[in-house]
Design goal:
- It is a single chain.
- It is built from eleven helices and eleven strands.
- The termini are far apart.
- With 318 residues, the chain is an alpha+beta fold.
- The radius of gyration is 22 Å and the shape is elongated.
- It has helices at 9-15, 129-136, 152-168, 173-195, 202-208, 212-221, 229-235, 240-251, 255-273, 278-284, 290-301; strands at residues 19-30, 34-37, 44-51, 54-57, 64-66, 71-74, 80-83, 98-102, 105-111, 116-126, 142-144.
- The chain has a seven-stranded mixed beta sheet with strand order 8-9-1-10-3-6-11. It has a four-stranded antiparallel beta sheet with strand order 2-7-4-5, with no helix packed on it.
Length: 318
């Protein structure tokens, strides 16, 4: 595959943002209210305010006040607090009354009977290694305020659809809310990527580079290929030395070190999600022997591939 037919690598990274919904909840909350949400490893939390307002607090980040139409992401699954106002009591959400519509969707009614806030929240997991690597680079909170933005109209329309489905709970409503929420999560991540200066350096900045971004896309698409500095440079019609220097400058590590690390990231993901046999995975990633693959895996990840346990299905969040 020649470089000139590789799609835009930055757009391709966004394409990999396919989510597995873990849990969704509609909150019908009346002041005074507050709650503490648990840490959920390997997941991203999102919160959408439909009416009313709330304060989002994440350790190590400035508190954010969310108004109707606002979207907030807590990308790293950290525990956090949602409050009617700063200082409000915030009991663990697991102990609050929920009406379970299914094992993945619930309605939470909580508070003291005052001013009402309606919100939808959820936890989602990204299954693709490229997506997970991208999410790892996101800040503690992404806060998207649609008012006045070019996306305001469709964002508000999506929120109205979520509100209608969450309120009516018609057959298939959970599936509709899941799909619409996924769209909002991708919108939130894309908004940060487009507007935050920190998204223009390091790995994310390298994805935007016309040549090095395409080299990254080739490695991501075909980690099993027997890549060398020379073969990657040839794909881009660059000299070997110029490619090696530019790759290291933009990505922050030499090309072959990145190739190995990316293969191990893919391997770790497959071991945890599929429980694939180590020997089969070695061949799948281009290694001639299980022993060679195992040595590389332990060097990069720090443990042997056989010690990585497959992830069990995530239970209901609370």
């Amino acid at each position: 595959m020649k470089a000139d037919v590789v799609p835009d690598p930055f757009a391709e990274a966004l394409h990999f943002l396919r989510m597995t919904g873990t849990f969704y909840c509609r909150g019908e909350l009346t002041a005074p209210w507050g709650m503490t949400l648990p840490a959920v490893p390997d997941c991203l939390w999102f919160h959408v305010v439909i009416s009313g307002r709330c304060v989002l607090e994440v350790e190590g980040a400035e508190p954010r006040t969310l108004l109707p139409g606002d979207l907030a992401l807590v990308p790293h699954g950290e525990g956090h607090r949602l409050l009617a106002e700063p200082g409000a009591p915030a009991p663990a959400v697991e102990g609050l009354p929920h009406d379970y519509v299914s094992d993945r969707y619930a309605v939470l009614r909580h508070g003291g009977g005052g001013a009402e806030t309606i919100k939808v929240c959820g936890a989602v997991r990204f299954d693709n290694p490229t997506a997970r690597h991208l999410v790892d680079l996101l800040p503690k909170i992404i806060h998207v305020e649609p008012a006045g933005s070019p996306q305001a109209e469709w964002t508000q329309s999506t929120l109205r659809l979520i509100a209608a489905e969450a309120g009516a709970l018609r057959p298939g409503g959970e599936a509709v809310i899941t799909r619409l929420s996924d769209i909002l999560v991708i919108h939130g991540i894309r908004s940060w990527l487009e507007h935050d200066p920190s998204a223009r350096s390091g790995w994310l900045g390298a994805l935007r580079d016309k040549q090095i971004g395409r080299a990254l896309a080739l490695v991501h698409r075909q980690p099993e290929r027997e890549w060398t500095v020379g073969s990657l440079a040839a794909e881009l019609a660059m000299s070997r030395s110029a490619f090696a220097a530019r790759f290291t400058e933009l990505v922050g590590e030499p090309a072959m070190q990145y190739v190995t690390r990316w293969r191990m990231l893919v391997a770790l993901d497959v071991l945890r999600t599929e429980g694939a046999p180590v020997a089969a995975l070695a061949g799948r990633l281009g290694y001639q022997s299980e022993a060679a693959f195992s040595r590389a895996f332990k060097r990069v990840v720090g443990v042997s591939p056989g010690s990585v346990k497959r992830l069990s299905p995530v239970p209901a969040m609370w």
